[in-house]
C-alpha cells in the first residue's frame, strides 16, 4: 500500500503507471477475502466486489 501511495503521488496525472502496484494490492486483498469468506477487514482494501471487479477488468 505504501509503494502504491508513493507511485500515485509521483504520477498524479498518469495513475496507469501504478497498475503493477494496484494489482499487487488487489491480489493481496482478494486472497484475504477468499481466506475469510469475504469477512476480512483492512483499511487498504476496498470491498470484495470492488476488488474482484477491478481484477476482472484488468487482466494480466
From TrEMBL:
It is found in: Mitochondrion intermembrane space. This is Cx9C motif-containing protein 4, mitochondrial. Belongs to the CMC4 family. The keyword Disulfide bond applies. The keyword S-adenosyl-L-methionine does not apply. Transmembrane segments: none annotated. Its main location: mitochondrion.
